[in-house]
Amino acid sequence: MFDIAPTELLIVALVALVVIGPKDLPRVMRTVGNWVGKAKGMARHFRSGLDTMMREAELEEMEKKWKEENARIMREFPSVEVPKSDGAPPVGESPPPAGETPPVEGDMPPPRAGDDDRKLP
């Protein structure tokens, strides 16, 4: 932040000791410390505000790009209407034979001719 050499800091401390005096120096240093703390807090608050604004701007830019890309894709591949289910089989499948109901998931097939009802031990 500031490039203050240790020798420069020592000279400032000696001048402050001579000008302010040893009696009032702790009170003055405490006041200066409070000011520095407040300045750092304001700088931190300002920086976080800038960071928030930059993030929001980036998000808005990304959303704009996403909307443009979405519009491009929708122009290239228009939506295909899916027919409503009216009981007809899906395209490519043949309807079940007359009088026979289509199997429901989890149903057991009926026994075949020649199947045995014997139980295994």
Q: In words, what does this structure look like?
A:
The chain is an all-alpha fold. 55% of the residues lie in helices and 0% in strands. The mean pLDDT is 81.
Strand-helix topology:
Blueprint: H1 6-20, H2 25-76
Report the average pLDDT across residues.
Answer: 81
Percent range of helical residues: 55-70%
How do the SSEs run, as a string of H and E? HH
What is the multimeric organization of the chains shown?
A: single chain
The count of DSSP E runs of length 2 or more, i.e. the number of strands, is 0
The Cα radius of gyration reads 41 Å
Strand content: under 5%
Structural class estimated from helices and strands: mainly alpha
Based on CA inertia axes, which overall geometry fits?
elongated
- How many helices in DSSP terms? 2
Short précis:
The chain is mainly α and 121 residues long. It has helices spanning 6-20, 25-76.
What key attributes describe this structure?
55% helix, 121 residues
